[in-house]
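Holo prediction — PMT.
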Amino acid sequence: MIVLLGISGGIAAYKAPEIVRAFQRRTYQVACALTPDAARFVSPMVLRTLTGGQVLDDLFAAEETGIGHITFADRADVMVVAPATAQTIARLAHGFADEPVSLSFLAATCPRIIFPAMNSNMWQQAPVQQNVALLRERGHTVIDPDSGELACGWTGPGRLPDPERIVREVAALLAGSGRLSGRRVLITAGPTREFIDPVRFLSNPSTGKMGFALAEAARDAGAQVVLVHGPVTMSPPDGVEAVAVVSAEDMSAAVERRILEDEPPDVFIGAAAVADYTPADRSPSKLKKDQPLDAIPLQRTPDILATVSASGRVPVCIGFAAETNDVIDNAREKLSRKGLALVIANQVGTADAGFAHDHNEVHLVSKDSVVSLPRASKADLARTIISTIADLVDNVA
Ligand code: PMT
């Protein structure tokens, strides 16, 4: 997912490097376009360093081949103008294209989202408000500035929202503007640990990355998210209720509690790699090395996904299928056996996808279709998956 950040020349431009970093923390790639005035407030060199050289600040630079400026706009999945001064808002509303930000804005076909920042009186003037209205009429998103103390010494509307909020607004726009707002989504993520004795356990290589990315994407789409996760090293995303568990039995109990609540979830997504077997007896003390242990008797764990689906309390149940072979056929079998709306099938045991990788390649398997998504970051895949799930929720409603 590529964000083109258009920076115009107001004092809030000094926050641009923080905005770039906030997007990068969410695994977005960022390119920047600067107006000539913006380049006086924030160093293009700093932005070049942060973005790996992806900065457009001079339409007539020696390296400009004549189409480079179009390429920036063309590659972007979303263009964010922050801060947008009164001058830049006027240029965008009236189709100017004589500096990098307005030119990129005009050349872009992706969604565009504008964050005005200026003195309160300027913000409230009719020309600015009319230009904002014009941009909104054309389908662009304009986020009203925050109120508070301004750099000019005034207090009132005109502040640029903080970088994290900018990222959240953009993520929500990309996720379909709150398509899951008011919905409850319960997600499992990560591995489980099945202890043999107090110091040894059976587990798998799941890191929780896929499930955590889904939790973020569901939250960004407006859902109220509960994330039940096994032992992982990541911190839970902000704004998501996280429930940490260890074993398959713990995970099953935590999920069951949520399913039986007065208001059960609208969607369940089983992204966890739940152990299928657990030791039949757990030794209360550490087994000694010289103690004979030829076999560890195992018993099946509860199938959490199948139980949720069979309960009939969750309208949209989604499973994953982690397969080493016959990926689609096995996913179809899981879809029908567990009565699911969708199975997200992925190949595991490969060098560059599945467990622990930042990227994955998945197939969305439903009763009537198989949609194969090309290899992408787990964050990008999660956004696409959540948008597909929002369609399923709409169809159920
Ligand atoms: O966490 P990462 O490192 O990012 O890796 C992501 C992933 C590979 C773990 C993820 O993409 C994935 O495939 N998750 C499901 C792994 C799995 O257990 O697949 P399965 O085919 O064995 O199980 C099928 C479904 O039943 C899954 O939705 C699983 O959560 C669920 N299940 C399985 C067993 C069980 N006892 N209870 C369950 O709910």
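READOUT: The chain has two domains: 2-176, 184-396.
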